[in-house]
Task: inverse folding
């Protein structure tokens, strides 16, 4: 014990038992002492106790919330790592915003709720906590906001897959407060090497003898070329930043800024100024988040070809804001009307990293094209205190727009129009709209496929993807990836992975599977159907969000090895069907297949071993709140209604037992 608790006598001799305390006087008044809550008064004591000057306590308090993770020394070197680059540098944004608030006479407060990394938890039990984390973090953020009763405004700083959606949910709930979101930006691609999406397939490619051990080690070392920011592709992190700006919650041209650079730090200062002005003008979150701004976000999502995970997050944001929750029909309508205009990783056709989308003009540039097509509501308010129309008028004539495009040409030799295109240019490039929602006897409630990501070789001249084959059924992602690595999956197969929805795994993200299929030479000839969800960087003929999920007695959980399944996706008209058609020896119609599946027993699927109680509770609460198609939210009124009904039913059962 001595070596664990060793302390010098000198250290003990210097222990103090009292201190002088801060000098000066609190700026109290007779009215404050007679009428203010004791918490407000004690808060002033806490403020000066932390070192704030008592002479500077009259400013308006603004809360800064962040996903910051890790710890650095005074020179910026790591002494404790964060979970990912996305929250590693946001402390700089916090400092820049705080200094700006202080300079304006305000009092900044800072609080943190760090976030996990979906890349780090792929294929592990950590993925069971990924999606449920979003709801939990949003709850904590809201509690932190309410626990500082004297705050006049809130700034949220976040970057990645779950932290930024959680922040948007929390701030969307603050209807009567001014709020601004500062997106955490993106990391840069390596000068030589692979992006952070492709690099996650080194295990599968090495197992298939497509790369060497030395190549895997070297490429893996270089993938995150800079220490901060979200991944270099339009995955969930980048798409969430785009959506925050499209909603009007972030400043124009703030999404996808390069982390750690001056232009990125400048954004934090400007955002702090914006929230100060919002407070003066009495512009609050409910002025910005409306049905019209939710619609605009859906349109921008389609134009970018964003992550399908935002189909889970945008409805949740709408719910938190008290807006109308978009339905599947709404998503279908938006995606049919909206052309995809952005050519970036992972969709292509040219695989530009997100930094190029930023330099090409980012969200406002895309919105200019959408405005010309009449697809946006330009009267919505934004955090600039001006309407979207006014913001776009400024952007169209701004020197910033010209300079950004010039920098892209000078740095990478790329014309901005090669990254963000007009509708006509995009059509010439063969770019199609983003998302299709297949239905059928396997997915009676619907499913999702990013139709833009299907390999062009697999689509015929009419824009149709068609695949009919016997299926290979797996009841966990782990079994599926093991089959791929062991060579048991071949070109022409259809993989079914069930039991991986909210009730089974917390609706895990199956990027291990989709990335392996993308980057293995035969992968484009394999179709994946699952009740789990996909990473935003996933590509290929991958159908997810199948509903009902297997563990909710969904048909996907009743398929067997050797069943014949037919998949047909119309990538032009955004229509799709996923049907069980019997077996090779006994073919049936889709209608007959429906009856067969109804009579079958569920496969040997069960909640994953080690599924945390926290996630089981999340799954139950979101299920009675409408499930994934309503954003996996907590509908408190509905939850209470179900609980009360359950209590009554249990009470009745107990009384019946007593009578017997």
Result:
């Amino acid at each position: 014990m001595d070596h664990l608790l060793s302390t010098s006598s000198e250290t003990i001799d210097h222990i103090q038992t009292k201190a002088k305390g801060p000098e000066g006087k609190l700026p109290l008044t007779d009215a404050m002492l007679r009428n203010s809550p004791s918490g407000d008064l004690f808060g002033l004591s806490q403020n000066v106790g932390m070192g704030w000057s008592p002479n500077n306590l009259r400013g308006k308090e603004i809360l800064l919330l962040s996903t910051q993770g890790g710890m650095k020394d005074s020179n910026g070197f790591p002494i404790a790592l964060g979970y990912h680059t996305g929250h590693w540098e946001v402390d700089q944004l916090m400092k820049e915003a705080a200094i700006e608030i202080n300079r304006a006479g305000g009092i900044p407060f800072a609080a943190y709720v760090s976030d996990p990394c979906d890349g780090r938890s792929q294929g592990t039990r950590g993925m069971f906590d990924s999606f449920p984390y979003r709801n939990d973090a949003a709850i904590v953020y809201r509690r932190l906001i309410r626990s500082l009763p004297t705050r006049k405004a809130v700034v949220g700083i976040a970057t990645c897959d779950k932290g930024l959606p959680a922040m948007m949910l929390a701030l969307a709930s603050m209807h009567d407060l001014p709020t601004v979101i500062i997106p955490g930006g993106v990391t840069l691609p390596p000068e030589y090497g692979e992006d952070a999406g492709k690099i996650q397939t080194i295990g599968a490619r090495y197992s298939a003898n497509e790369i060497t051990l030395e190549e895997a080690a070297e490429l893996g070392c270089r993938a995150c070329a800079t220490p901060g920011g979200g991944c270099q592709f339009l995955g969930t992190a980048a798409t969430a930043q785009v959506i925050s700006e499209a909603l009007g919650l972030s400043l124009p041209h703030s999404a996808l800024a390069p982390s750690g650079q001056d232009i990125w730090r400048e954004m934090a200062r400007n955002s702090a100024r914006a929230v100060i002005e919002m407070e003066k003008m009495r512009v609050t979150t409910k002025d910005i988040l409306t049905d019209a701004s939710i619609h605009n976000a859906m349109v921008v999502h389609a134009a970018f070809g964003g992550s399908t995970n935002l189909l889970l997050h945008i409805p949740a944001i709408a719910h938190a804001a008290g807006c109308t929750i978009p339905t599947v029909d709404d998503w279908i309508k938006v995606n049919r009307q909206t052309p995809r205009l952005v050519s970036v990783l992972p969709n292509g056709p040219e695989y530009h990293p997100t930094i190029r989308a930023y330099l090409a003009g980012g969200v406002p540039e895309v919105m200019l094209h959408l405005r010309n097509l009449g697809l946006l509501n330009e009267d919505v308010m934004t955090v600039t205190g001006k309407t979207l129309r006014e913001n776009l008028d400024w952007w169209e004539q701004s020197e910033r727009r010209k300079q950004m495009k010039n920098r892209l040409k000078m740095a990478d030799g790329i014309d901005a129009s090669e990254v963000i295109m007009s509708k006509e240019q995009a059509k010439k490039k063969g770019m199609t709209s983003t998302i299709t929602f297949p239905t059928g006897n396997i997915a009676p409630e619907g499913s999702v496929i990013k139709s833009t990501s299907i390999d062009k070789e697999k689509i015929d001249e009419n824009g149709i993807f068609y695949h009919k084959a016997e299926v290979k059924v797996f009841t966990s992602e782990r079994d599926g990836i093991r089959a791929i690595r062991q060579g048991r999956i071949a070109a022409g197969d259809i993989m079914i992975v069930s039991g991986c929805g909210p009730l089974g795994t917390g609706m895990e993200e199956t990027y291990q599977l989709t990335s392996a299929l993308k980057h293995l030479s035969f992968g484009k000839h394999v179709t994946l159907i699952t009740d789990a969800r996909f990473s935003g960087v996933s590509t290929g003929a991958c159908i997810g969000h199948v509903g009902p999920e297997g563990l909710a007695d969904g048909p996907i959980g009743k398929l067997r090895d050797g069943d014949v399944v037919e998949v047909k996706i119309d990538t032009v008209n955004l229509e799709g069907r996923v049907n069980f058609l019997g077996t090779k020896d006994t073919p049936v119609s889709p209608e007959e297949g429906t009856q067969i599946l109804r009579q079958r027993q569920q496969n040997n699927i069960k909640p994953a071993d080690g599924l945390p109680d926290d996630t089981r509770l999340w799954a139950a609460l979101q299920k009675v709140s409408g499930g994934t198609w309503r954003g996996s939210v907590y509908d408190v009124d509905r939850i209470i209604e179900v609980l009360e009904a359950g209590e009554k039913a249990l009470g009745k059962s107990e009384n019946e037992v007593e009578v017997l």
